[in-house]
UniProtKB/TrEMBL annotation:
Residues 49-211 form the ATP phosphoribosyltransferase catalytic domain. Its main location: cytoplasm. Pathway: Amino-acid biosynthesis; L-histidine biosynthesis; L-histidine from 5-phospho-alpha-D-ribose 1-diphosphate: step 1/9. Keywords: Amino-acid biosynthesis, ATP-binding, Cytoplasm, Glycosyltransferase, Histidine biosynthesis, Magnesium, Metal-binding, Nucleotide-binding, Transferase. It is an enzyme of class 2 (transferase). It comes from the Archaea. This is ATP phosphoribosyltransferase. NCBIfam families: hisG (TIGR00070), HisG_C-term (TIGR03455). Residues 217-293 form the Histidine biosynthesis HisG C-terminal domain. It comes from Halorubrum coriense DSM 10284.
Amino acid sequence: MRIAVPNKGRLHEPTLSLLERAGLHVEETADRQLYADTVDEDVTVLFARAADIPEYVRDGAADLGVTGLDQAAESGGVVAAASEAADGDLVDLLDLGYGSCRLVLAAPEDGGVSAVEDLAEKTVATEFPNVTRDYLDRVGVDADVVTVTGATELTPHVDMADAIVDITSTGTTLKVNRLAVIDDVLDSSVRLFARPDVAGDPKVEQVLTAFESVLAADGRRYLMMNAPKKRLDAVKDVIPGLGGPTVMDVEADENGNGMVAVHAVVDERDVFETISELRSVGATGILVTEIERLVE
Ligand SMILES: Nc1ncnc2c1ncn2[C@@H]1O[C@H](COP(=O)(O)OP(=O)(O)OP(=O)(O)O)[C@@H](O)[C@H]1O
Ligand SMILES: O=P(O)(O)OC[C@H]1O[C@H](OP(=O)(O)OP(=O)(O)O)[C@H](O)[C@@H]1O
Ligand SMILES: [Mg+2]
């Protein structure tokens, strides 16, 4: 099975790190190599431009692809489940949570365009012509779309366009270029995409579960401690655990009091408060560790 992942740019590193954490270690390759093996002999990684990945998957060059929803939407249809797929659609299997950005319609701050209706008979420049045309159809505005391959923010200032549809995340680029957001076109983040015909394959399910387990572990910590057996209920009350803690009998303390070891998964935001509460109900030897993966 082949997974297409971004070969460079901002999505490259986080995607490799996700594969690594998911247990799909990518074998060392020289930079720019197109393919790489993983520790799983059935899984090959294919490096491609973020914008080309949806096409690789649609065409069958790859079975799975990791890229932005914006890129997938630009290249064709995207559906949430294989059962809803029409010919050529991609299935959006999982939101991987990084690469979050918005495609927005923006125009010069002090210009003549302050609502999408003002764009009738005018021109919109974008790297996303298909998404932009779909959007204009949806809102019922007849505007020209010109395709550019970068520096879109410049086009309204050189009379190439009256507005743009472009990616924004912090808003800095729009601000620097004195452009104001007029409307949201698409919310995007990086997703795991599959072709509908492979979406239910056991190997695909295995990759999906591995990715999900990484996301589930994010923001969670593993707590281990010892506690007097008679304080167990109090300890349990303190731990906002995932399906209740794991409790094991351990050796009694020096006074012969029964002791237990308690393990639990907790939200990292709760760790600080939880530790002092655990100490106050008699827990000792409290250990906090990171979790690599969590299969629920
Ligand atoms: N500013 C941003 N913040 C968050 N995500 C972004 C941002 N810009 C782009 N992305 C996401 O990353 C994807 C890839 O962007 P792009 O193709 O521009 O590559 P890049 O990482 O910028 O590298 P390069 O432009 O140098 O090829 C976009 O389709 C989008 O999903
Ligand atoms: O809202 P902001 O945080 O300013 O981000 C938005 C900018 O980020 C992306 O550009 P990128 O940095 O990828 O440069 P590129 O044009 O070379 O792709 C995008 O094309 C916008 O220009
Ligand atoms: Mg970019």
